[in-house]
Hints:
The protein is 18% helix and 38% strand. With 424 residues, it is an alpha/beta fold. The chain is elongated. The N terminus is likely disordered.
Amino acid sequence: MKIGTHVMRTTKPQTVPARRGQRGNLSLIVAGSVIPLALLVAAGTELASLSSERALMQAAADAAALNGAQNLTVAGSSQRQSPAQVENFALAQVGEFATRATVSFTATQGNDGTYTVEGLAIRSSFFGDLVPPGGFRIEVTAVAEAMQAQPICVIGDDATVGGTAISATHSSSIVAPNCIIHANSNFNLLQSATVTAGNPRATGAANGTGFSPAAQAGAMRLADPFRTRTIAPPVPCTSVADGGAETIATGTRTLAPGMHRTEYTISGTATLQLQQGEHYFCKGLRLSGQGRLEGEDVLLMFMPGAVLNAGQNSYVSLSGRRTGDWAGFVIVATRGNYANTTIASSNVDRLLGTIYLPMSRLIVSAPGNVAETSQWSVVVARNVNLSQQARLTINTDYEGSPVPVPLGVGNQAGGTVVPLRLRR
C-alpha cells in the first residue's frame, strides 16, 4: 500500500498596497479642506464687496448732504427743496446697488445751516441671512454745513433731460465773480468761451475748460424762484386798438406806461423814452442803427410772440421798478412767450434789475460788454446763450441800488454756501 504525501500550501492574506491607502487618505484630507477654504474665499470676497458698498453709500450720503445744505440757503426759507427730493438725489447716486439691496436715505434740515443725511442698506448674507442674522447692514451718516454765503444771479431753467440750460461759444464770456450761475441741466462752454463766477454749477454736466473756478456738476435742481408769480397784463391785448407797425428814425418819442399794441422799430438816431411805470408790449420792440431805448423805474412785459431785439449799434439803458408788485424787475416775458430776447449790441450798458424769461431764451451775441454799468443784474430764463465776443457782466452792488432785489434771487435768495464742508 502506497502512502501518498499531502502537501500543505499556505496562502498569504492579500493586503492593500501602501500607495493606494495613501491616496485615499489624501483625498479625504483634500475634501475636508476644500470646504473651509471655499468659505474663506467667499467670506473674503463678501468683505471686499461690503467695503466697496459702504464707500458707495457714504459718497452718496456726502453728496446729498452737500447739495441739501447748499439748497437750504440758496432757495430761501419758503422755497427749499423738500427732504424727499434730497433723499431721492442720494438714492440716485448708488445706481444699480439699489437693485441688489434694500437701500433708504433719510434727510433732515437743521436750523443752524446744517443738513444731515443718514443711509441704510440691507443685503443678503450667508446661509439665508442667518450669518449675520437678517443680512448685512450698511449704515452711514453725513452732515454738511454752510461756510460762506453768496447770492444767486443767473438761473438757466431748462430741465430737459440731456438739454443745455446755459451755453457760451466762440470767445464769449460771463463775468459774475461774486455770485452763483446755475444751470438746471447741462452747462456748456465751447471753443474759448469762459465763465468767471463765485460758483458755476449744473445739475447735469459742466462741459468745457473755461470755468473759473471749476464748475460743480451733479448739483441739485434749483426751482424757479418766481414760478408761482402770475404774469399777465391788466387787460387782454385784444381789448386795445391795434396800432400796426411804426418806425421811428429821428427825434425822441415819449411812451406813457400801459398797454402797447404797436410794433415799434427804433432806428437811425431816434430815442424811445419810456416813462416811469409798467409797460405791456403786445407786439415786438426792435432797435437798429443807433436807435436808443431809455427808461427809469420801468417794467417791460412782453406778451406771447413779442420780444425785445437790440441790434447793430443801438443803445439800451433801463432801470427796473422800484415799487409795486413788479419791484426789482426790468424785463419780463409771459409764460406763453417762447420767442427769443436778443441783445446783439455792445451798447446795452445798463440792465438794472431782474430779467425773467420763464419759457424763452436770452441770446447775447454783442461784440463787447453788456450790462457792465448796472449796479446789479439777475437773469432767470429757460436758456441763456452767449456767442461771438459777447461779455455779459453781472454786478452785485445791491446795497447801493434804488431798485430792490426781489425775494428769491440775488442777496434775497438766502445766499448759497461756498464753500460747503462735511462735519462727518
